[in-house]
Amino acid sequence: MKIIVTKDYEELSKKAAEVVKDILSKHANPKLGLATGSTPEGLYKELIKIYENGDYSFRKAETVNLDEYVGIDEKNEQSYHYYMFDKLFNHIDIMKENIYIPSADQENLEEATKEYDKMLDGVGRRDVQVLGIGNNGHIAFNEPADQLNARTSIVELTESTIAANSRFFKSKEEVPTKAISMGIKDILNAQTIILLASGEKKREAVKKLLEADKLDTHFPASMLHLHRDVILIVDKDAMGEE
Ligand code: F6R
């Protein structure tokens, strides 16, 4: 795992954008894996700047998202569909038909997971996958458990994730308890993985990840040790450095 420590969140976001742009620029039809949550917001702002400055066009890019809540409408401001359009897609020249976000907006959720897997098989290996990490070590919504899902699944969110994500909702009760999430096998199906972690709250998860010498299903981020090209971009607060 390559580790880049930045002085703060701003520098982390700029560095991540630089790495993403450099990778995408090498491909005629780049495939980009995206995450939601607060950590990549700065990266998305930087990617918008890069696009606005005329330094990169997303016209030929395909994007694939990790997850979506079950039980909230895709037009709802709390949905990850809304987030992605609001924070990135509405501000760049990506083609709508090249955007893939798992959809839980249908009655048959099992069918939704199968459809997403089929799409993932069609898109194939992403050139770069952006990831965040949960305080409990989750990646996408693969929560700590005795077994982890290899492929897209409907998952129950843990109390810790519901509590952490309640900051985006009016109350904890409003946080969905289920999500549709890409599985570990597909998360790892990217040439390069960029894992972002910022702030003191992530310090323990980062420490655990770096110290992990076992694959631990109760700390899903440890699965990233199976991958040969992970770049951890972390600020000093998350790294525990002065
Ligand atoms: C989001 C996702 C999650 C987040 C994680 C960290 O698509 O898959 O794994 O990356 O919960 O969230 P933040 O960045 O809000 O701390």
Distance between the termini: 22 Å
What ligands are attached or bound here?
Answer: fructose -6-phosphate
Structural class, judged by helices and strands?
alpha/beta
Q: Give the number of DSSP strands.
A: 10
Model regions low in confidence, pLDDT < 50 over at least 5 residues? none
Feature tags:
about 240 residues, alpha/beta, seven-stranded parallel β-sheet, three-stranded antiparallel β-sheet, 8 helices, about 20% strand, binds fructose -6-phosphate
Compact description:
The protein has 242 residues and is of the alpha/beta class.
Structure notes:
The chain is an alpha/beta fold and 242 residues long. It has helices spanning 9-25, 41-52, 80-87, 109-123, 159-165, 184-187, 203-211, 236-239; strands at 2-6, 31-34, 62-65, 67-69, 99-100, 126-131, 153-156, 178-181, 190-197, 230-235. The chain is built from eight helices and ten strands. The strands form two sheets. The protein has a seven-stranded parallel sheet, sandwiched between helices. The protein starts with a strand and ends with a helix. Fructose -6-phosphate is lined by residues 35-39, 66-67, 132-134, 138-141.
